[in-house]
């Protein structure tokens, strides 16, 4: 009896619309006519031959990957920083969490100002660094990655592999090996830069300024960057709660056993954060698949549908083009994809609790 009212509301506002949407996806309906014309799988056939649908699906894939790859590790790093006795800890936590109190529409307005091509904060910042256009910035990122970031990573990786194989215990000797590896890779990088410079193709509009939201090749990543600004504090809170459940006795025991910071993190802290990590990844995946507010508020899927995602395309087809049947078919595809991730999440929850 206690569950009757909430169960009725759940059926009325969740399950019934799902069933209705699935039924509507097999019809042709403008949303106003009293009758719906049954067309079977015609909407889905048209859907899988629709270039805008595939663009939206690929953009959702970008959202999915980057919405996990950026907020989860950055949120964990910030949470571990705030878990220490940092002066002004509570103030910084509050400031970081402030973005979570804003709706995506407000965030879209803020980032529209930041992304303004001429007088926006980002454009002015990169101009102060010597970049005159988005094309120059993209080329600079490629050069930095090829000639600095990759040699840096390879140097540390080879140093770690050699130290692990030789089992050096002396810290000074380990750092000497690592510095030698870094020097070798940076010398090779310098020699390579004398003979070859990677060139990337940039659009004509990217050569004339900073078209963060009007360059089809860049607009989706600009939107994702703006959305992660709100997602990172949410992940941070999840990890802060998880860090409170890490027994201090385990940390103290690992210190007594001689484990360094990296070993304590990899073998003590990170395994204890597995439940928080599963929740953070799953919620980030689901949020990325239902991204709509910030896309519609900032670009409405433009320019030329290049930033469209499934939820945005579904809304435009249903309510702007009065094609409810076709919009419902997009919603069904999105529902199936999201349901798959939810099933995986519930499976992990039941397994951990069982």
Blueprint of the fold:
Layout: H1 4-24, E1 27-28, E2 37-38, H2 42-47, H3 51-69, H4 71-82, H5 89-97, H6 104-114, H7 121-128, H8 134-166, H9 171-195, H10 219-243, H11 248-256, H12 261-272, H13 274-289, H14 293-298, H15 310-320, H16 324-353
Antiparallel strand pairs: 1-2
Helix pairs in contact: 1-16, 3-10, 3-13, 4-10, 8-9, 10-13, 13-16, 15-16
Describe this structure in words.
With 354 residues, this protein is an all-alpha fold. It has two domains: 51-102 and 216-353, MetI-like (MetI-like fold); 134-206, no CATH class. Helix content is 71%, strand content 1%. The protein contains 16 helices and two strands. The protein has helices at 4-24, 42-47, 51-69, 71-82, 89-97, 104-114, 121-128, 134-166, 171-195, 219-243, 248-256, 261-272, 274-289, 293-298, 310-320, 324-353, and strands spanning 27-28, 37-38. A two-stranded antiparallel sheet has the order 1-2. A hairpin with an 8-residue loop joins strand 1 (27-28) and strand 2. The longest helix has 33 residues, at 134-166. The radius of gyration is 25 Å and the shape is globular. The relative contact order is 0.14. The model has no long low-confidence stretch (mean pLDDT 88).
Distance between the termini: 28 Å
**Assigned CATH architecture of the largest domain:** Orthogonal Bundle
CATH class of the largest domain: Mainly Alpha
* Major pleated sheet: 2 strands, antiparallel
CATH topology of the largest domain: MetI-like fold
Quantity of strands, as a count: 2
How many separate structural domains? Answer: 2
Mean pLDDT value: 88
Low-confidence stretches: none
SS-based class: mainly alpha
Strand content: under 5%
Quickly count the helices. Answer: 16
- State the helical fraction: over 70%
Give the overall silhouette: globular
């Amino acid at each position: 009896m206690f569950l009757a009212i909430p169960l009725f509301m759940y059926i009325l506002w969740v399950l019934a619309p799902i069933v209705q949407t699935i039924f509507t996806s097999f019809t042709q309906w403008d949303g106003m006519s009293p009758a719906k014309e049954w067309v079977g799988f015609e909407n889905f056939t048209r859907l899988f031959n629709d270039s805008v649908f595939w663009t939206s699906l690929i953009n959702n894939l970008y959202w999915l990957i980057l919405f996990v790859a950026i907020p989860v590790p950055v949120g964990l790093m910030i949470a571990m920083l705030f878990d220490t006795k940092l002066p002004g800890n509570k103030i910084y936590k509050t400031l970081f969490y402030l973005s979570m109190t804003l709706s995506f529409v407000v965030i879209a307005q803020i980032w529209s100002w930041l992304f303004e091509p001429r007088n926006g904060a980002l454009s002015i910042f990169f101009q102060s660094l010597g970049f005159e256009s988005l094309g120059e910035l993209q080329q600079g990122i490629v050069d930095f990655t090829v000639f600095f970031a990759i040699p840096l990573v390879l140097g540390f990786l080879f140093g770690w592999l050699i130290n692990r194989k030789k089992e050096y215990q002396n810290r000074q000797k380990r750092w000497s090996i690592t510095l030698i590896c870094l020097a070798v890779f940076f010398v090779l990088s310098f020699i390579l830069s004398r003979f070859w410079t990677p060139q990337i193709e940039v659009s004509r509009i990217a050569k004339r300024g900073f078209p963060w939201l009007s360059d089809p090749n860049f607009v989706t990543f600009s939107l994702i960057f703006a959305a992660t600004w709100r997602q990172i504090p949410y992940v941070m809170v999840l990890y802060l709660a998880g860090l409170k459940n890490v027994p201090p006795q385990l940390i103290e025991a690992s210190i007594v056993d001689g484990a360094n910071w990296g070993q304590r993190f990899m073998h003590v802290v990170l395994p204890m954060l597995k439940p928080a990590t599963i929740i953070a990844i799953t919620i980030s995946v689901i949020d990325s698949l239902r991204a709509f507010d910030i896309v519609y508020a900032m670009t409405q899927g433009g320019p030329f549908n290049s930033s469209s995602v499934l939820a945005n395309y579904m809304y435009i087809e249903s309510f702007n083009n009065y094609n409810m049947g076709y919009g419902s078919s997009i919603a069904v595809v999105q529902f199936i994809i999201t349901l798959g991730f939810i099933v995986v999440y519930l499976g992990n929850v039941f397994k951990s609790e069982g």
